[in-house]
Amino acid sequence: MDAYELARFAHLTGLMLLTGGVTVSIAAKALARRRDDPSVIHALWQLAHVTVRRVAIPGSLLLLVAGGALVHLSHGAYSWSEPWIAGAVVFWVASALIGVLLHGPRSRAVRTTAAAEAAAGADQASTTLRTHAQGGVLIGSTDAGLLVVMVALMVFKPG
């Protein structure tokens, strides 16, 4: 296995980790939105949080670094100025910003509120918890859409 094949393997591994982590996070949050018990809501949002932190983010970083290595190791066959590569990087940055600026604070608010309500013995989620947990669906869908576009750019290489 030469360096290019290793970089390609790492790139695809990063993609699998990113998409797997995002899928688990989306599923956990969807299940949490259908629950009334704050302790269950907390557990599901905590699962989403841990999966993103330990699987999706490392996968995303591996995807980007290995993709850069692929461009470098291609000896001119690929360039950062190609529309599909530049576009994928732009979408990667946009997704990262959405995660840091929007998903992170919302996740923290849901987990904190759910943990406090569960510790207080509540068996029904408050309006505040429901509002936090229900919000962000449009942002999450947009972020998932960015991931789909990134994958499509890598597979079809338009331009």
Structure description:
The protein is elongated. It has one domain. With about 160 residues, the chain is mainly alpha-helical.
Task: List the SSEs and their pairings.
Blueprint: H1 3-33, H2 38-73, H3 83-119, H4 127-134, H5 137-156
Rough outline: elongated
Which percent range fits the helix content?
over 70%
**Strand pairing plus helix content: what structural class?**
mainly alpha
Number of helices, where a helix is a run of at least 4 consecutive DSSP H or I residues: 5
The CA-CA distance between the termini, in Å, is 30 Å
- Strand share of the residues? under 5%
Show unreliable segments: none
Tally of distinct domains = 1
**Averaged pLDDT:** 95
Radius of gyration, in angstroms, nearest whole number: 18 Å
Short recap of the structure:
The chain has 159 residues and is mainly alpha-helical.
Which labels suit this protein?
159 residues, mainly alpha
